[in-house]
């Protein structure tokens, strides 16, 4: 690993000042992704600003029934938090389906939003990759694509966003609070991550000097929510397809629904088309299938990942069916 | 170079190191505590698991400078019934993953006692630690010899 100058920030102000005017600086939270990428020489910061001691570790209830999650809350602490387990079971379940217990003890919420793809060609320095080296091409297209995307991809990049946590956040209408020496702003999670288009190396709407300070969730539309993850081994593997869903039904009709997909797109994929079809529709397996087909209508597969299109449809149906039958909490 | 004061197995250990030195390398290469193993060096195998203030972490993805002021416990600092149980249950073959397995299991038992849920737990926790629970909660520790049955047996014996 290349060396760097190290700054430990005791407070947010120090952290923000340390990166202002420093074009090649990185914030270091739990380190579970950044340290690995630095060891692989994919990330090569000159300055590392350690933010792991910042006092952004609270989970607070907001007036109106929402919740504010400090950017440095550890994954394990968030998954175990009583507020999250009772009001947002989909979030607790999504976290517990991700990584390992050791990694969840280290990884932070803010860092999770910024984690980078696990595309093998991105990691392999000998392969062409438009994310790692803009303009060099994409070795994944025409390569081994089992873990690649079918929605929102481009001819320049088909990598997927690896997060489970973010898929739940997308379904829960999360907002991200970011801060820099220029001030504080908030943006919806749906606008935080960017689709690759012709600039796959631009992954988020975050400026280099901006720090994620919190994630806020509005009151849930229903506490009946669930996360379902399909993967190549039972635990400790990235998703082939995952579904975060919340469903409320009255008189046999869908009165509220939130759906997001993981493992299929370059960003946590809010399934707006499926939601539109479902709202007001009868809560039946047939309607779930119609909605899933509407969402996946625009999907395009490569040789190795076309199976994900049908797998995503079936996983959407199965998750909604589970919610319909029991709606159990985490 | 950065001056770092680590606290490992109850002893203060002042170090003068480069900031990119991982906690794992600090333990093994600077402090001579080679019980903690380097497997993948990328957070995928769990061989490097140690405890930081009683919580299990992957020391390969931790920079040593980040852990100043934390109480680090390695296999050399443990005196725990799991160690004998691993021997009795044949919880290893080559032994390379064993220190990580044992540190991880110590952290896991504490998490379970504190009510940490898992992907397997459907109800609020407490209660018995089933084999399925142990396998899920220990999935961050790989054993290429495949001694999983012995590992699960050893943990179950101590959990009872």
TrEMBL record, chain A:
<dbReference type="InterPro" id="IPR016169">
    <property type="entry name" value="FAD-bd_PCMH_sub2"/>
</dbReference>
<protein>
    <submittedName>
        <fullName>Xanthine dehydrogenase family protein subunit M</fullName>
    </submittedName>
</protein>
<dbReference type="Pfam" id="PF00941">
    <property type="entry name" value="FAD_binding_5"/>
</dbReference>
<dbReference type="InterPro" id="IPR005107">
    <property type="entry name" value="CO_DH_flav_C"/>
</dbReference>
<dbReference type="InterPro" id="IPR051312">
    <property type="entry name" value="Diverse_Substr_Oxidored"/>
</dbReference>
<dbReference type="InterPro" id="IPR036318">
    <property type="entry name" value="FAD-bd_PCMH-like_sf"/>
</dbReference>
<feature type="domain" description="FAD-binding PCMH-type">
    <location>
        <begin position="1"/>
        <end position="222"/>
    </location>
</feature>
<dbReference type="InterPro" id="IPR016167">
    <property type="entry name" value="FAD-bd_PCMH_sub1"/>
</dbReference>
<dbReference type="Pfam" id="PF03450">
    <property type="entry name" value="CO_deh_flav_C"/>
</dbReference>
<dbReference type="InterPro" id="IPR002346">
    <property type="entry name" value="Mopterin_DH_FAD-bd"/>
</dbReference>
<dbReference type="InterPro" id="IPR036683">
    <property type="entry name" value="CO_DH_flav_C_dom_sf"/>
</dbReference>
<dbReference type="InterPro" id="IPR016166">
    <property type="entry name" value="FAD-bd_PCMH"/>
</dbReference>
<keyword id="KW-0560">Oxidoreductase</keyword>
UniProtKB/TrEMBL annotation, chain B:
<dbReference type="InterPro" id="IPR012675">
    <property type="entry name" value="Beta-grasp_dom_sf"/>
</dbReference>
<protein>
    <submittedName>
        <fullName>2Fe-2S iron-sulfur cluster binding domain-containing protein</fullName>
    </submittedName>
</protein>
<dbReference type="InterPro" id="IPR002888">
    <property type="entry name" value="2Fe-2S-bd"/>
</dbReference>
<keyword id="KW-0408">Iron</keyword>
<keyword id="KW-0560">Oxidoreductase</keyword>
<dbReference type="Pfam" id="PF01799">
    <property type="entry name" value="Fer2_2"/>
</dbReference>
<feature type="domain" description="2Fe-2S ferredoxin-type">
    <location>
        <begin position="2"/>
        <end position="78"/>
    </location>
</feature>
<keyword id="KW-0479">Metal-binding</keyword>
<dbReference type="InterPro" id="IPR052914">
    <property type="entry name" value="Aldehyde_Oxdr_Iron-Sulfur"/>
</dbReference>
<dbReference type="InterPro" id="IPR006058">
    <property type="entry name" value="2Fe2S_fd_BS"/>
</dbReference>
<dbReference type="InterPro" id="IPR036010">
    <property type="entry name" value="2Fe-2S_ferredoxin-like_sf"/>
</dbReference>
<dbReference type="Pfam" id="PF00111">
    <property type="entry name" value="Fer2"/>
</dbReference>
<dbReference type="InterPro" id="IPR036884">
    <property type="entry name" value="2Fe-2S-bd_dom_sf"/>
</dbReference>
<dbReference type="InterPro" id="IPR001041">
    <property type="entry name" value="2Fe-2S_ferredoxin-type"/>
</dbReference>
């Amino acid at each position: 690993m290349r060396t760097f100058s190290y700054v430990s920030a005791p407070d947010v102000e120090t952290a923000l000042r340390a990166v202002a005017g420093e074009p090649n600086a990185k914030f270091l939270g739990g380190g579970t992704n950044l340290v690995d990428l630095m060891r692989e020489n994919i990330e090569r910061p000159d300055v590392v600003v350690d933010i792991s001691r910042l006092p952004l570790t609270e989970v607070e209830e907001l007036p109106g029934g929402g919740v504010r999650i400090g950017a440095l809350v550890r994954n394990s602490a968030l998954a175990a938090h009583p507020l999250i387990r009772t009001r947002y079971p989909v979030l607790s379940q999504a976290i517990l389906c991700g990584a390992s217990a050791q990694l969840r003890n280290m990884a932070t919420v803010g860092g999770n939003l910024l984690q980078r793809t696990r595309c093998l060609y991105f990691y392999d320095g000998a392969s062409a990759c438009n994310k790692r080296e803009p303009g060099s091409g994409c070795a994944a297209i025409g390569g081994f694509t089992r873990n690649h995307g079918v929605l929102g991809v481009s001819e320049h990049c088909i990598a997927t966003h690896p997060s489970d946590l973010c898929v739940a956040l997308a379904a829960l209408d999360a907002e991200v609070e970011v801060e820099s020496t220029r001030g504080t702003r908030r943006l919806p999670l749906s606008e935080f991550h960017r689709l690759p288009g012709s600039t796959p190396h631009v992954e988020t709407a975050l400026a280099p000097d901006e720090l994620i300070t919190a994630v806020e969730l509005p009151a849930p539309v229903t506490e009946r929510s669930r996360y379902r993850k399909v993967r190549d081994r039972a635990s400790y593997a990235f998703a082939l397809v995952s579904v975060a869903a919340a469903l409320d039904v009255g008189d046999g009709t869908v009165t509220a629904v939130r759906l997001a997909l993981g493992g299929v797109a370059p960003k946590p994929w809010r399934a707006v088309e499926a939601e539109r079809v479902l709202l007001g529709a009868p809560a039946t397996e047939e309607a779930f299938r119609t909605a899933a087909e509407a969402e996946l209508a625009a999907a395009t597969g490569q040789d190795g990942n076309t199976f994900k299109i049908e797998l995503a449809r079936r996983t959407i149906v199965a998750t909604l069916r589970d919610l319909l039958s029991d709606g159990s909490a985490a | 170079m950065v001056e770092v004061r680590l606290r490992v197995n109850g002893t203060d250990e002042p170090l003068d190191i480069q900031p990119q030195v991982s906690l794992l390398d600090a333990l093994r290469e600077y402090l001579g505590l080679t019980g903690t193993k380097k497997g993948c060096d990328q957070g995928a195998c769990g061989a490097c698991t140690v405890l930081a203030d009683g919580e299990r972490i992957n020391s390969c993805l931790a920079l040593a400078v980040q852990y100043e002021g934390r109480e680090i416990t390695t296999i050399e600092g443990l005196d725990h019934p799991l160690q004998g149980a691993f021997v009795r249950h044949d919880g290893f073959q080559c032994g390379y993953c064993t220190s990580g397995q044992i540190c991880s299991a110590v952290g896991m038992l504490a998490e379970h006692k504190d009510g940490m849920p898992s992907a397997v737990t459907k109800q609020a926790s407490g209660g018995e630690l089933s084999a399925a629970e142990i396998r899920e909660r220990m999935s961050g520790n790989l054993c290429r010899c495949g001694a999983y049955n012995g590992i699960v047996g050893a943990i179950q014996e101590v959990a009872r």
